[in-house]
Design a protein that fits this description.
With about 230 residues, the protein is of the alpha+beta class. The protein has one domain: Alpha-Beta Plaits. About 20% of the residues lie in helices and about 20% in strands. It has 7 helices and 10 strands. It has a 4-stranded mixed β-sheet with strand order 8-1-10-9. A hairpin with a 5-residue loop joins strand 4 and strand 5. The radius of gyration is 19 Å and the shape is globular.
């Protein structure tokens, strides 16, 4: 078994948000759901100004607080160290959402992808309505649906449950990297097994100064950041 996690090289990251977009398309995320996102911070007074751009995702913590508080074990750890969610066991209590210090869990208050239900076009006589487009793709829930996501998790998540990053577990089982890693144009994201001392992620953490977000919370996050600028 492995202990999967990620290293993010902040010096390589160009702040393009390509990882955010890649995650949305791979995992069929609705417009207001973000499994991969970023935060920015500007400090100081001109001309002495500092700027931070921090890509964020579920940290798949070894001591995951979301798993601890889940009353049904819907949120759980798998044999490869991933923090995953079982929609069939989820009762929508949102305890995990409150417990996560990283704001990485989203609650689905309504049916996803409401765009497909829109009956009015954006521009009359020029564009189609969301409903009209969806009807032309009657074999999928919406036009840009990725069926691969449904290999291990609901392709489109249900109303009344939570959801979060799975590190693309549906790709990992096929020996592939998470799609955000594959899509990064600057190779800023590196995925691997922290239990393997010869893996690239293990070597990067050993050979560089690194930090983890909110390490003081005791969750033992498995996303490391190196080469802070």
């Amino acid at each position: 078994m492995a202990n999967y996690g990620m290293v993010i090289n902040l010096n390589n990251c160009v702040g393009c948000a390509g990882c955010d977009i890649a995650c949305k398309t791979e995992n069929n995320l609705d417009h207001d759901v973000h499994w991969s996102f970023h935060v920015t911070e500007t400090t100081g007074v001109f001309p002495n100004v500092g700027y931070k751009y921090i890509p964020k995702l579920c940290n798949h913590c070894e001591n995951a607080s979301c798993v601890k508080v889940c009353p049904t074990q819907a949120m759980h750890k798998d044999e490869n160290g991933l923090t995953l969610h079982d929609a069939d066991l989820c009762i929508g209590c949102r305890s995990c959402e409150l417990a996560c210090p990283y704001d990485c869990i989203t609650y689905n208050e309504d049916v996803q992808h409401q765009l497909k239900m829109d009956t009015e076009p954006l521009l009359n006589g020029i564009t189609s309505s969301g409903k009209e487009i969806a009807e032309k793709f009657d074999d999928v829930p919406f036009p840009n649906y990725n069926p691969d996501r449904a290999k291990t998790y609901d392709g489109v998540r249900r109303k009344g449950i939570v959801e979060k990053c799975t590190l693309c577990d549906h790709r990992i089982v096929d020996g592939k990297n998470p799609w955000c890693v594959e899509s990064c144009p600057a190779d800023a994201r590196i995925f691997g097994d922290f239990d393997d001392p010869n893996s690239e992620v293990s070597k990067l953490v050993a050979e560089n100064t690194s930090f983890q977000l909110l390490k003081s919370k005791g969750t033992k996050p498995k996303v490391y950041y190196i080469d802070e600028f």
